[in-house]
Amino acid sequence: MQLTARKAQPWVSMLLIGLLLVHPFVSARVGAFLFVLASLGALSLSITHRDRKLRLYFYVASTLLIWSVFWNVHEGTHRIFVYLLCTSTYFLFLIIVISDLLRTKEISKNEIFALINCYLIAATVFSFVYELSYIMDPASLSFQTGSTDNHSVFLYFSFTTITTLGYGDIVPVSPFLRHIAILEAIFGQFYIAIVVAFILSRYIQHRNASPPA
After folding, report:
1. In the chain, fewer beta carbons within 10 Å around the N or the C end?
2. Residue 3 above 60 pLDDT?
3. Nearby residues of 105 by Cβ (< 8 Å), 6 or more positions away
């Protein structure tokens, strides 16, 4: 499987960044719908037509998404279902892209965008874990100010954790979420120090080795 031939990652970057900008201004249900739509769009742009198993997953997940729009259930139950679907799709995207990055011999701008996308998606996946834990146990997180009705709050906490910024206005209380926050912070540091450094070094080597035009 080669994502580089598709040159899809810049479009995925635009999709993800657009979602992050729009998400705070929509309702929780619409935001959940947009996240699934973005995850399916990212996966669809990244996989090739030859990948039958991934295409099958894409069609099943799309059907579930359409069905969930008309699913008249409790808001919390709907969010749990949608976020689990998002988590599985984004996690699959991460596996596909990172494995492709580590296998590819020629690094182009497409792979650089792929690095950015993996970082954004990893933080998004962690945000789903935080909100799902909060839905099941509201005492698992402590909030100083603000409403928790919108997923953007958990996105904010996830991105401040993965970047080890940590303003301190949202604090994990339960032992489970504390360990998840530790894992996210470790992932964020190792991703930049190892994966990004490795890919960028190969990109520089590829550019230096290329004959002048």
Report:
1. C
2. no
3. none
